What we know:
Blueprint: E1 2-8, E2 21-29, H1 34-49, H2 62-74, E3 78-85, H3 91-104, H4 115-129, H5 133-160, E4 169-173, H6 181-200, H7 242-247, E5 250-253, H8 259-275, E6 292-293, E7 301-302, H9 319-328, E8 330-331
Parallel strand pairs: 1-4, 3-7, 4-5, 6-8
Antiparallel strand pairs: 1-2, 2-3
Helix pairs in contact: 1-2, 2-8, 3-4, 5-6
Amino acid sequence: xxxxxxxxxxxxxxxxxSRSLCSVGALxxxxxxxxxxxxxxxxxxxxxxxxxxxxxxxxxxxxxxxAAIDCLLDHGCLFFVxxxxxxxxxxxxxxxxxxxxxxxxxxxxxxxxxxxVRKEAFRLRGIFERMPSPLFIQTVLxxxxxxxxxxxxxxxxxxxxxxxxGKFGWVIDAKDKRKTEFETAWELMAGGLVQSRCLESPGxxxxxxxxxxxxxFILTQWPDHLPRPSVRPGGQIxxxxxxxxxxxxxxxxxxxxxxxxxxxxxxxxVFRRALMGRLQRPSYDxxxxxxxxxKDGPVVMHYFGELENQDRSSFNDYTAAVRLIESxxxxxxx
Length: 334
C-alpha cells in the first residue's frame, strides 16, 4: 500500500470567537492501482483547468470535490484523519505538553549508555523542544495518524487484498525542497513515538485474515526492554517491527510531482471544509465511504485544553457533517 500524508490548517490558536479546525490526513492507495488513479486524476485536472498542473484542494468547487471522491472510491482508496479545533486548545497546556514530551527523550538515559547515544538523545530533545508550536501539534497528530493507519489499513488489506499488506510506502508532503531539521528529527524519533502509542493502545488482528504478506512485520519474540501490555484472557500479544513498517519506505516529497500527495491534499481539505461549513452537500456525501472506524468512530478530535476550561461547545458546529461522514464509514476490515 502507498500512504500519502498531508495537513491542512494553520495549527495556531485563532482570535477569540473564531474557529480553526486543523487536520492531518492519510490517503491509502493500493500500490497496484496507483498508476491508474494518477492517470484518472490527471484527466480530471485537464478537464477542469486545461492543464495537468497541481490544483489545491482548498480551491475545488462542489462538483470537482464529488468527482475527486468518486475517483478515489473507484480505485479502492481509504482515508484516515486526525484533527483538532485550535480555538479550544490552550497555548499554555500545549507548551507544557511539548516540554514534557521532550524530556521523555532523555528520561531513561543512564551512565550505562555510551556518550554518543547520550549526545544524540539530548540533540534530538533540543530540536524537539524548540520546534515551533504549530509544527509540534502537527507532529502529535501525525504520530497518532500513523498508528491509526498501521492498525486499520492492515486490517483492511489482510481481509481484502493480502499482498497490499506486505508494504507500507509512506510519502509525506515536504515542507521544503530539502528535508528540514525538524523533519529529520521526527523521522528518527517516529519509531519510538509510534511504539509508545502501540503500548498504550494495542491493535487487534482478525483470525480470518490472510497475514501471509504482513507476517514479516511481526516480531517472533517480545523485546525484553519493553513492558508487556495487558491483554484479555485468551488473548495473544503481537509485537510489530516498526523499524520495517516505517523505514523500509519513507520519503518526504514535493506535491507538485505527486498525484498521490495532491489527492491527499484534496481529501484532507474536503474534510476540513465540510466540517467548517465551507462545502455544500451533496459534494462530500460519499467522503465517509473512504473512512473506517475500529474502537472509535473514524472522526476523533484531539484536545489540548485546560481542565478548568473544558467548554467544547464549538464542536457542536461539526455535528451534522460528522454524523453524515460516520454514517457512511465501515468497520475496519469489513
